[in-house]
Amino acid sequence: MTTTLKIRLGALVRACGGSRYAVALLVDALGTGLLRPFLLLYGVTVLRLSAPATGIAMTAAIVAGLVCMPAVGRWLDRGARSTVVACSMLVRVPGVVLLLATPAGHLWPFAAAALFLGVGNQAWPAAHAALVATVAHGRERDTALAAGRALRNAGMGAGALLATVCLAGGTTALQALAAVTGLAYLAAAGLAWSVRLRARPATTPAGGPGGEPAGRMRALLAANVLYAFCLNVPEIALPLVLVTQLHASPVWPAAVFTANTVLVVTLQVPVTVLMSRFSRRAVLALAGVVLAVSYLGFLAATTLGHGWGAPAVAAVSVLCTLGEILYAGSATALVTVLAPAHLLGRTLARFELSTGFGLAISPAVITGLAPYGPATLWGSLAAATVLSAGAITTEKDRGTRHDRHDRHDGDDGHDRHGHQESHIRAAGARPLVPDQRRDSVDSHA
Asked: What is the CA radius of gyration of the chain?
């Protein structure tokens, strides 16, 4: 397959779900960037709650959001697409309203608000991936998923920057940010719902798998838990190392986080397109190797001590971000290809469950390993990530031996979900993708 870096913006927008949907993603991301990084600060400064109590409430909200994922998967498998995306955005509006209505010193209303926000934040990725898998096929789907991630990171980064500027206004500014966030979620939900995209539920093939995704995905889902740690490295591990171990200025963690966001926004789509000449599973394994090398780079950088240590960590963080980009550009796309058509929603829900679990435990693991020294922290992360990459490649070999009908481990030149018929019921709307025939170009998974 000939790969080109020429990306047609119009085709990319259609593959992402259309212009209204793209605007909905951007508005939702702006709202998320305004509040999500400052939710803990809102609980502590505005509501005058203790930091431990606020943190526990937010953790419980994340766990509750993960518990809801099986129901989200079943809903998607019944054919819902834009409705699930809209609901994942809309459910966060009551959370913002509760935040604004919570009196100072009251924990339970804040916990309820965090619950609504957590459910929406956890449900959105699977719903978005299912929608994109319905309107785009083959490598166009990979690019569309990458574009959605880049757009979301850009919106969240802009929202966080705006919120940081507004923090000078104190508690009043935080309350205003919460109100604007609620309006953004409401507007985004309306735009997403207006797309009115629904897929015809796929039937279970005769003699095919029953109620569970393909067994060979178990290693992939388990490995994804450890891969997801990389998403918290710029936010948790590097600030911890830079400030507490290297005694660097807080400017360094901020610079690393900003560079990470800029690189993801600018490189996610081009790198995904560039790597489309390779199988998705090979790219995902490569991502693990790159991440492991970056973790060892962080270990080497910390030995330089104060002075050169902080610049070295910042330089290595670019390699870590590249690993994150490779991971994000291949993992979800691989899952959409491997998932049986009638279990797409539940498979994506399980994948997002593994991602959410990795994000939930990574702060505890990172902060638990850090006191034992850089070698323990970065060596453990590197070893675990390499083992995960090896498990992914081994799983491919096992699947190839036992399933002759699934050549290249899910990348046999056909799109499993290309036969799902989408229905856009908005008056006068044209189909987002006029031709949803089976893709004969995609020759790698």
From this structure: 21
Cβ atoms of residues 208 and 305 within 8 Å = no
Segment holding 190, helix H or strand E: helix 171-195
Phi, psi of 193 (to 5 degrees): -65, -35
Distance in angstroms (rounded) separating the CA atoms of residues 402 and 280: 20
| 123, 69 contact by CB (below 8 A) | yes
Asked if 16 and 144 touch (Cβ cutoff 8 Å), the reply is yes
Answer whether 381's CB lies under 8 Å from 307's CB.
Answer: no
Closest CA to 37 of 219, 286, 236, 187: 236
Q: Are 93 and 189 in contact (CB under 8 A)?
A: yes
3-state secondary structure of 422: strand
Residue 35, strand partner residues: none
CB 415 within 8 Å of CB 137: yes
Cβ atoms within 10 Å of 166's Cβ, excluding its own: 17
Alpha helix segments (H runs only) across 339-425: 344-369, 374-402
Output phi, psi for 422, to 5 deg.
-95, 150
pLDDT in tens, the chain (445 residues): 444 445 555 555 665 566 788 888 888 888 888 787 778 878 888 898 888 888 888 888 888 888 999 999 999 999 888 899 999 999 999 999 999 999 998 999 999 999 999 899 889 999 999 998 888 888 888 988 998 888 888 888 888 788 777 777 777 888 888 898 999 999 999 999 988 888 887 666 654 545 455 455 888 999 999 999 999 898 888 988 888 888 888 888 888 988 999 999 999 999 999 999 999 999 999 999 999 999 999 999 998 877 888 999 999 999 999 999 999 999 999 999 998 888 999 999 999 999 999 988 888 899 889 889 899 999 999 999 999 999 999 876 444 433 333 334 444 434 555 444 444 443 333 443 333 333 333 334 5
If you search the block for the tokens 């036969």, which residue do you land on?
419
The pTM is what? 0.83
CA 172 to chain centroid, in Å, comes to 31
**Distance (Å, whole) CA 180 – CA 327:** 33
> Two tokens at 65?
């959001």
